[in-house]
């Protein structure tokens, strides 16, 4: 009778994949990406430190260590988005092209940003405790207007208009484009190029027909 041979099976502990430890810089960037997505999705008030830390897979103290809290993280996210958008607008305005072409490029720069960085623009147009008159949408319009102001001043001077009004007209122009962009963010129709063309149509033809001394006619 043949005996059964039983092999000894040695059970070894299953290898646990080593967790890649992020550097401080990598962790900071990860938290910024997570925060950006959550702030765009839920807004400042609707986002908590708990959600940020859970989605990033870290403890809450890690978020506090890098940013001091939700407010600090939000401020950095907003600053980055503002810088990115203003860089695009500044580049468009820096060309030596005809003023109408410059206006077209600036309008397209904003719409391009909305199209490619939708989360970022959603954050900029939201209200939050750290974005009153010095941040977010109000700051976006103010900073962009300061870029447009010197171009308008030069055009006003060449056409015999008072240059002191250039800052006010810059606010009007940028506000019109930015608010239209906020509307287009949701509807996405008509096409980007068509929206830019209509914006320039109103702005350019309005500027071309400016009165030297405008007055209200309502009696």
UniProtKB/TrEMBL annotation:
Record keywords: DNA-binding, Transcription, Transcription regulation
Biased composition (Basic and acidic residues): 1-11
Residue range(s) of DNA binding per entry: 48-67
Stretches the record annotates as Disordered: 1-21
Annotated Pfam families: TetR_C_32, TetR_N
GO molecular function list: DNA-binding transcription factor activity; transcription cis-regulatory region binding
Keyword Transcription in annotation: yes
Highest taxon above the source species: Bacteria
BP terms from Gene Ontology: negative regulation of DNA-templated transcription
Domain HTH tetR-type: 25-85
Alphabetized Gene3D superfamilies for the sequence: Tetracycline Repressor, domain 2
Classification via InterPro entries: DNA-bd_HTH_TetR-type_CS, Homeodomain-like_sf, HTH-type_TetR-like_transc_reg, HTH_TetR, Tet_transcr_reg_TetR-rel_C_sf, TetR_C_32
Full protein name: TetR/AcrR family transcriptional regulator
